[in-house]
Amino acid sequence: MNPNGxxxxxxxxxxxxxxxxKGFSMATTKDVLVSNYRKFARxxxxxxxxxxxxxxxxxxxxxxxxxxxxxxxxxxxxxDPAYVSWxxxxxxxxxxxAFGPSVxxxxxxxxxxxxxxxxxxxxxxxxxxxxxxxMGGPDANV
Amino acid sequence: xxxxxxxxxxxxxxxxxxxxxxxxxxxxVCHFMSVRRxxxxxxxxxxxxxxxxALRPVAGGANLLYPIFKxxxxxxxxxxxxxxxxxxxxxxxxVTYNAAHDDHADITGAGIVSTATLGTLTxxxxxxxxxxxxxxxxxxxxxxxxxxxxxxxASDALIAFYDTGITGMPVTPNGGNINVTVNASGWFSL
Lengths: 142, 190
What we know:
The complex is a heterodimer of chains A (about 140) and B (about 190).
Chain A: E1 10-18, H1 30-45, E2 51-59, E3 62-72, H2 81-99, E4 104-113, E5 124-127, E6 131-133, E7 139-141
Antiparallel strand pairs in A: 1-3, 1-4, 2-3, 6-7
Chain B: H1 2-23, H2 26-32, H3 42-55, E1 64-65, H4 67-74, E2 85-90, E3 112-117, E4 122-124, E5 127-129, E6 133-135, E7 145-150, E8 158-162, E9 178-181, E10 188-189
Antiparallel strand pairs in B: 1-8, 2-3, 2-7, 4-5, 5-10, 6-9, 7-8
């Protein structure tokens, strides 16, 4: 995969859900949650919904669920505030319906590779491997 | 009454042993009934494992931790989650891996295309990780290498060298940002 080819626009969408107060319920498993979010993302972004990551993060004394989507599609435009706002509204509706009204949903979209369409040079994107240094053996790449 | 309690405990023990054997499957039962596999002494198995690791081809080959980094880490000279850790984007025509390199000054300045400071450094169970980052408004030579180093260390210790298996490399700077996604398994694990 070369994400830096011409006529490509790779974007990263991060959805953070914070459980706030007592007005939420989480009567589901991680698998169900991930599966439902996949379906939702496919409807939201179209069939282009791509690489997906889910994690729980503890930050500033709070527990967050974080969904990260990386998508290649010229029609998905994180540089357009109206589009980002629409994605935020849809995500908020989805997660409040799932977890209850007191969850706080934050959606951010950013360009990883491609043109911002503002006259500035295109962004480029690289993805790092990881080194696994084995006991007494050679270094290996993951 | 006491005898009865002992009897019940014996019965329960036998029941759980039978259940455990049944749960292991047929081959395990055969094994239990003395159809034994040949046993290889632990020392021999360790020698085989070591040999297999040494002979195993390293995928891509050259993403490496600097030997001096390991020494400095053991010597408490580097603290990976409180020091200022930086990443250089480099041109492989001028920056190559050399196990004898130990300080950032060993890398020729012309080969360094851009430098960024890493944020949200974490170490957990031997894995060093950071947040994704960007080199901003990058110009210069086509680049193939990423160099990790410690800016807090008195001699700017080199940490790791990456030139293999990097998606999106080689990258030709165009004046725009180069965004970097750190591997889900972190920069490296020990």
